[in-house]
Amino acid sequence: MHLITVFGNLLIILASVSDSHLHSPMYFFLSNLSFADICFGSTTVPKMLVNVQTQSKVISYAGCVTQMDFFILFAGLDIFMLIMMAYDRFGAICHPLQYTVIMNPRLCGLLVVVPWILIVSLFSCTILGVYLSSAATQNSCSSAIALVVYTVVTPMLNPFVYSLRKTDIRRALRRFLNGV
Known about the structure:
Blueprint: H1 2-18, H2 25-54, H3 61-94, H4 99-102, H5 105-121, H6 123-132, H7 140-164, H8 167-179
Helix pairs in contact: 1-2, 1-7, 1-8, 2-3, 2-7, 3-5, 3-6
């Protein structure tokens, strides 16, 4: 499933970058969402696969803090990219004549950079939270199921939900694959 996530999201990024018809704010945000989804899944899935293979659930404190930092970073970026995509669609639907003036390349870049800066600032809160948290026991089976659904299934479905159903993405992918 992780390979499907990576492959599907890479296809969206390649289609958006390679086809000039897709150089619009919506696909700019969609490419950033795809990148965040690839990174989001890659923060936990490799360690989860190692744990399954070795039947060991051991992780160092530094590894746990690092994994939590990146998990929160990319989860936050996913949320912000979805918000930016909603704002983009709101502008396109509610203000169609002013849309190109409102969603200029400078604003789109700013709307992507600001969430990165905000989420990076949460690293210190994560370290503090891990440091102060107790070792409360939880049901490991339900935690594992929730982790898989949240970190593997959702990013895997995003390419299908957001773009592969759209004819312009499929057309761009056909052009890209025929040109290769």
